[in-house]
């Protein structure tokens, strides 16, 4: 066959380095950014679908990565906000207590005197006095009939929970009028009276965490120190694990994570 019937064969040689020289490693950087963005997206989606307990635990780490914590509650330090892991449970308890209290016949006369708030320490239940004295008679450490009945109702509900309970007594700034008995004694005695009624009504003694008397040092109405609303009893359903961390802090030890054995000495 003649070579005239076949077109000439043309071989094109390309240098493999031309493509790399033109783009270098830029594609690797772009790919790494893409992977990082996807990972961040998946983390955000996971957090959005996670429980409130997990969300608060993650948020607590970024708020306090050193684990030293910030001031929390009324008299406690070093626990940090990561302890508010059962906030959702306490919110449910708040709603349940409100429903139970509404069933008390005299509740309509004391509704404005009962305040429930969620704090970093837990669920705070304030029994706020009126001018004539609703839960305690003026100057008297013994609860009134209404105060006793309300404390018994609270005890029946609190006894169903595993949380520790703290009790506080507060007074206004009006002097008590006796040299041997001041607002300090009165606030502490009222808190102790509330403790006794709670225990007599079914609350386990081991559930009582603290009994505090603050006198007039923590006023609700600071611009009116003698206002009756400053006289109150506060019952705090404490966050789970708070007492253990406070005890460890008081002993100069790092708090032990739940489920982990303490370090050997």
Biggest sheet strand order reads 1-2-5-3-4
Count of separate DSSP helical elements: 8
Strand portion, in percent?
Answer: 5-15%
- Counting DSSP E segments of at least 2 residues, the number of strands comes to 5
* CA-atom Rg in angstroms: 32 Å
Oligomer designation: single chain
The largest β sheet comes out as: 5 strands, mixed
Query: Could you say which overall geometry the principal axes of the C-alpha atoms support?
Result: elongated
| Series of H and E elements | HHHHHEEHEHEEH
- Percent in helix: 25-40%
Structural class: alpha+beta
> Terminal Cα separation, in Å?
98 Å
Overall pLDDT confidence: 80
The low-confidence runs, each spanning 5 or more residues with pLDDT under 50, are 68-85
Task: Provide a brief overview of the structure.
The chain is of the alpha+beta class.
Report on the architecture of this protein.
With 265 residues, this protein is an alpha+beta fold. It contains 8 helices and 5 strands. The protein has a 5-stranded mixed β-sheet with strand order 1-2-5-3-4. Helix 6 crosses helix 7.
List keywords for this structure.
265 residues; alpha+beta; 5-stranded mixed sheet; 8 helices; 5 strands; 39% helix; elongated
Blueprint (SSEs and pairs):
Blueprint: H1 17-23, H2 26-49, H3 52-63, H4 87-102, H5 107-110, E1 114-118, E2 122-128, H6 145-158, E3 165-170, H7 183-200, E4 208-213, E5 232-238, H8 242-250
Parallel strand pairs: 3-4
Antiparallel strand pairs: 1-2, 2-5, 3-5
Helix pairs in contact: 6-7
